Amino acid sequence: MDTPELPPKRPRTFVLVGGTHSLADDAWWRPGSVFGRAVTSHGYTLVNQKRGFVWTTDLEGIWPWRRRRTWAVEGEHLYWYLRANTSWNELPSVIAHSHGLQVVAYASRFGQRWDLVISMASPIRDDMTPIYQSLR
Questions:
Q1: pLDDT tens-digit readout, 34-45
Q2: How does 85-116 read in b/e, with b if 16+ C-beta sit within 10 Å?
Q3: Cβ atoms of residues 120 and 96 within 8 Å
Q4: What is the dihedral of CA 115, 111, 102, 32, to 10 degrees?
Q5: What is the tens place of the pLDDT at every residue in 84-111?
Q6: What's the mean per-residue pLDDT of the chain?
Q7: What's the distance, CA 2 to chain centroid?
Q8: Which of 1, 8, 42, 75 has its CA 20 to 30 A from that of 22?
Q9: % of the chain at pLDDT higher than 70
Q10: Distance from C-alpha of 129 to C-alpha of 48, rounded to nearest angstrom
Q11: DSSP sequence for 6-71
């Protein structure tokens, strides 16, 4: 019996978005990290091989009276980071951890579109439902 041929791997460019308190020099989302190297070893590329996307990792959004301002600002920051580091017609993929997903959702609200969104251990919050709608 012949082994069926697998379809070719689709090229993807990933941006890695860390979660809460993930600013360490060896954080998983940094391009030179073990995780970043694993992504590229499988034939994928990272948006910026030298400098990953950095945000404050602030938990401000969990407090209702603060209205998620930090996540919104960081979402816009992610949008412009991608504009500066990808071609205008490129749809990057994203791997986000924890509250990094909130930042990704806000980037979508600013107009960012994705090829693929992978969320790792991200809290899905009822108060973010209108923002999550933009991820579709």
A1: 999 999 999 999
A2: bbeeeeebbbbbbbbbbbbbbbbbbbebebee
A3: yes
A4: 50
A5: 999 988 999 999 999 999 999 999 999 9
A6: 90
A7: 39
A8: 42
A9: 90
A10: 30
A11: PPPPPP-EEEEE--TT--STT-TTSTTSHHHHHHHHTT-EES-SS---------GGGSGGGTTHHH
Of 63, 50, 43, 77, the C-alpha closest to 127 is 63
- Report d(CA 31, CA 46) in Å as an integer: 7
Instruction: Kindly state the tokens that stand for 80.
Output: 């412009």
Token pair in block for residue 25: 């020099």
